[in-house]
Amino acid sequence: MRAEVKGTGSIMLTQPFAVYPKTEEIEIPDEPEVVPVDNTTAVIDNTDKVIYGLEEGVTDFSKFVKVTGDAQLSITPTENGYGTGTVIDVIADGKIINTYKVIIFGDVDGDGYSNAYDSIAFQLYMSYNTEFSKEQLMSGDINNDGIIDETDMIYSNLSGVFLYTIPQTRT
């Protein structure tokens, strides 16, 4: 007898060819998932597989996200630090079952902060001298209008000289 089930809840298996049919009920555990810690602004976007709503400069992700079930999180920073593009893997039974990437709005260089380095990266992108990854495009859309344009670059420039704080949540 073989059964394959995905999801939550319980199933009933019956052996129909036994002299005395035997029915057993088993519990199927919920699949582990990443959820925001209570009273935080963290958002888990399961469509785009990104996590945002974190603070600039975050290094302790356990203050914002946790995993349910029997699993753990593995966090791999970018080459510049714990910023946009940081990889968060959900690991269960020694296997990666889900992967998310971190978005810090305004942080297109992946160091965890929106600063002058990001302003330079914006200028390179706007002058077609560099390309952005999916996560950089999401991070760079500071005003959340679906495109990166001069308005986003202005916000980045202001943030780079500490005259504007980029919100890390979306409304």
Automatic annotation (TrEMBL):
Q: Which organism is it from?
A: bioreactor metagenome
Q: Which Gene3D superfamilies match?
A: Dockerin domain
Pfam families (UniProt xref): Dockerin_1
Annotated Dockerin domain ranges read 101-168
Q: What is this protein called?
A: Dockerin domain-containing protein
Quote the SUPFAM superfamilies the UniProt record gives.
Answer: Type I dockerin domain
Q: Which PROSITE patterns match?
A: DOCKERIN
Q: Which InterPro entries match?
A: Dockerin_1_rpt, Dockerin_dom, Dockerin_dom_sf
Gene Ontology molecular functions = hydrolase activity, hydrolyzing O-glycosyl compounds
Q: Which GO terms describe its biological process?
A: polysaccharide catabolic process
